[in-house]
Amino acid sequence: MIENRPFITFLAHLTLVLGVLLVAFPIWITFVASTHDAVRMTHVPLPLLPGDQFFVNLKTALTESIGGAGSLPVGLMMLNSLIMAMMIAVGKISISLLSAYAIVYFRFPFRMGFFWMIFVTLMLPVEVRILPTFEVVANLSMLNSYWGLTIPLIASATATFMFRQVFLTIPDEMLEAARVDGAGPMRFFWDILIPLSRTNIAALFVILFIYGWNQYLWPLLITTDKEMFTVVMGIKQMLETAEQAPDWHLIMMTALLAMIPPIFVVLSMQKMFVQGLTETDK
User: Fold this and answer.
1) For 110-136, how does the pLDDT look when each residue is reduced to its tens digit (9 = 90+)?
2) Residue 48 lies in a domain
3) What letter does residue 53 receive in the DSSP assignment?
């Protein structure tokens, strides 16, 4: 029997509502600031209600250079971020799928040793190995390129471990049935393992896309050409305008635009994302 406790229920809902408001308030302030002009954003108190300059600021941010961001409009910086995030997400998933497949289904010397070597790289984030990685990228002439932005970040021990655990849950009888039907290793991989891992791939894609989209330190180091700036770098550059006040209404519009792709990815793949993180059997 479940007891009805109105006060506890009210307190729980109040806590949830306060938590949502606490998280949503900065986003609301960002939206409000993006709807006003530069003059209004210099007055105190700051506005809490939207203005009438939203579409003007949107057009300016997407088509014109802003402050210290140089000659690159926000639209092109978002395109750079999108290409970088997609290449990182797709590359990490592809390499992790293949490496996990090899570790689980192929028998070769030192198989588990290679797996643990991959797993140990979790203790070596990009910040630790950033100098040698930069030297390698520079020697390969990949500075100021999409390859330089993505290849050093494309391996993922976490994704390899996750796919390995997924593949271990698939019954051996399925492999034997595929062999009886004449399916080769790659046919088994494409027609059986990939469909069974669909929700896990979707969950990892969401995480890795956001990881790639939010990258700041690595793009900052290897990009000197303003044509390769990402939107996260652009926001920082806008704050460093020389001898003039930052255009806060345009900076907030840029921050608002930078939220849209990750939010769209999360919302469009929400169901598969939850399934990929919660389901335990196939």
Assistant:
1) 877 878 887 777 777 777 788 888 888
2) no
3) -
pLDDT per position as a tens digit, 236-280: 877 776 556 677 888 888 888 999 999 999 888 888 777 766 665
Q: Are 258 and 79 in contact (CB under 8 A)?
A: no
Kindly give, in sequence order, each residue whose CB lies less than 8 Å from that of residue 193, ignoring residues fewer than 6 positions away: 97, 101, 167, 170
Tokens of 163: 């796919």
Q: What does 61-122 look like in DSSP terms, one character per residue?
A: HHHS--GGGTT--HHHHHHHHHHHHHHHHHHHHHHHHHHHHHHHH---TTHHHHHHHHHHGG
Q: What is the CATH number of the domain that holds 268?
A: 1.10.3720.10
Alpha-carbon distances of 128 from 23, 97, 154, 223, rounded to whole Å: 32, 25, 16, 19
For residue 5, which amino acid is it? R
Number of domains in the chain: 1
Q: Give the max Cα distance, the chain.
A: 75
| In a domain? residue 158 | yes
